[in-house]
Hints:
Layout: H1 2-40, H2 43-69, H3 84-112, H4 119-141, H5 147-176, H6 181-208, H7 218-226, E1 231-241, E2 247-255, H8 261-276, E3 280-287, H9 291-294, E4 301-304
Parallel strand pairs: 2-3
Antiparallel strand pairs: 1-2, 1-4
Amino acid sequence: MKQSDNNHDHRPQAAGRMLWFAMGLTLAYAGVEAAIGWWAGSLALVADAGHMVNDAGALALAAAAAWVAKLPPSRLHSYGFGRAEFVAALVNSLGLLVLVAWLAVSAVQRLQDPQPVMGEAVSVTAAVGLLINILVAWLLSRGERNLNTRAALLHVAGDLLGSVAALIAGVVITFTGWMPIDPLLSLLIAALIVTSSLRLLREALHGLMEGVPLHLSLEEIGRAMAAVQGVTSVHDLHIWSLSAERIALSAHVVLKEIAQWQTVLASLQAMLRERFGIEHVTLQPEPAEHVLQSLPRSNGPVANRRNSA
Length: 309
């Protein structure tokens, strides 16, 4: 058991180091892409460089949030700082949307006023950028997978698509001289990025608003709890996220026999852990004869044994 705890402690630290390394690599090549893109006149390449700078910020934010999330609870933050990961995901998604807006405006302007692009320089630079993005994505995929690292991976995936677009634009311009391909592909990448960004934004806001985790059903869990032997009904059921990985649950449990509480509690904890992955559980027992007095002061029964099947 002790060995397992040690592994759990070192894994987030390794993930944090991976994020910092990926950030440095991304930021370094973003400078190269920006300089060559500006010199070659390629909006797709400059946009890809801007996206890489945004990626670097996202990776730094993810690494900082991963460190903050592991800080122990304090007198003012009794649950700890796990929600720092939701804040980082929120900032990352908003940063992506700002980047998409800039990219769309620049592409429309470029379509209205085409500019010459040096296709060969764009192709070579984009090809190297694509390889670097693949390396960064591979490094991140080997680490801890949570909302925060998913946000960072989303940035990198979008940048990888941007490198592909810039590469295609460079090749097409080199062999055909058709300049509109550069802003058109930039608009295509912007559309792909905005869809994923809005999904990430929704998840981050949902977590910050203490919503029920999207992969869980309040009704299903209530019925499963009410079906446990010795339970009459469940009410005041609340489920929320302490962090991207830790889920908390609290509820009032009405019992047939209050003397059976220790046995029922153990059964409920085991069921919630094994079936739904919920380990942070706070349950209040209530004797069945008092349920009529307690329900008006609560949000009513979530589930009872009659509808739990």
